[in-house]
Design brief:
Four copies of one chain form a homotetramer. Chain A is of the alpha+beta class. Chain A has three helices and five strands; from the N terminus they run E-H-H-E-E-E-E-H. Strand 2 of chain C pairs antiparallel with strand 2 of chain D.
Chain lengths: ~130, ~130, ~130, ~130
């Protein structure tokens, strides 16, 4: 389920907008939720798989302010041989206005910390994650 | 001066790495420091100018861990007609290894919150900010 | 309603426990929720009333860890002439174990930032907030 | 050395004051700095000793705002048989005004996570930490 967050004063900064670092926590929450909803995360952890973000490209489109309620939408965009990309949006629940839009490139590392090839079992696992729907 | 930050446990996450949201606070610190070091920030504020990030593209290259000391390097990359780009790196002070590298696109808004054309006085102000040196 | 929070890696620190600063955000969330659920907060804001914490006494009893689900329980403890006290607990939803317990003393300031006497209308407002139930 | 922190917009909240959770990060920074300055922290970690806060009592006395520079003052207050107390203040560097004042009670846990008796070697270590000077 999409995380729903009520913006509080401590999320905001001197401009009364949600601070740009805080959005990355909202996005991380969205990614964990997507993973939990669609794959057996505990099994992944037991195998020592780690999701590691290697690039985040985030566009700040419209400010969110205290008392706004926002939704974090998350889905897959594409899967390559060694990395994959999720697309995410933080959207004002009431107005539908997009506050931020992001693409997050990640790798999956094994227990030695090295990125794994995305093939076989790992590829099947990632295919259980739904595509992004705006 | 480049901010120097000693990494503490509360900066890190379940992988014992500095969390990806926390780096954005380090980068924001670097940008404020650059601005303070080179332009009369109080004068800018009195005129109602606001620096607003519209895009951050951040690559996580090598993890920083508790007890590491990192430097935040910041400089201008380019200035356009309505937006400008700063380049930033968080670098391990001891080893020189680059932990993250980012490009931050920003606009300058006036007191009504609308982005201003970067020309005349505003352009001169931004030209006081030095170019990024790796 | 009591906020329900799933602990994520970014909430934790080098000991794999929720960091002590982070709990204060959880507690703040609990206080806003209590206020919203029982009083007309918008009206308060329009009158320029500000809830300002002047003391927080927090006992860290049992660590919360990534993947735990916690509830934030909040209620009034007592109301004095110029300040009031809320009691709060962060509790593991599954086990009932108390992670932290806190007493938060606050004042209500008017639009000039000065604490107001808690009497008349203001006292009636605070009396709408229910007492803490463990 | 006392940490010196320039307050930025992202430290503040809807009241334009440093948020109450953020101060706990400032205080944690102060405690680490005190420990590093006076005892061989690496040796402690190698022995598996962990400093764990069990109670924080913090009074918010005067707000700090963006562009203020604050110092974090930290020292020992007392050492008991199983716990010890540090006193801390966050002080405006320019005016000397005390923003927050806190007492932090902590235990030292061994590698099994259980609090240790403070005697012998451990007591000697803690005695290397100077008393609080306001």
């Amino acid at each position: 389920m999409e995380p729903e967050i009520k913006i509080r004063g401590y999320h905001t900064d001197q401009y009364q907008h949600v601070n740009n670092a805080r959005y990355l926590e909202f996005l991380e929450e969205g990614r964990w939720q997507l993973i939990e909803d669609h794959i057996n995360f505990e099994e992944l952890m037991n195998k020592g798989f780690m999701f590691i973000a290697v690039n985040i490209n985030i566009a700040y489109k419209n400010p969110a302010r205290a008392n706004d309620i926002v939704l974090v939408k998350t889905g897959m965009k594409k899967t390559g041989n060694t990395s994959a990309v999720m697309k995410q949006q933080v959207v004002n629940k009431t107005t539908g206005v997009v506050c931020v839009e992001a693409e997050v490139t990640f790798v999956i590392a094994g227990s030695n910390g090295k990125p794994l090839k995305i093939k076989g079992e790992l590829k099947e696992i990632l295919q259980q994650l739904p595509l992004f729907k705006g």
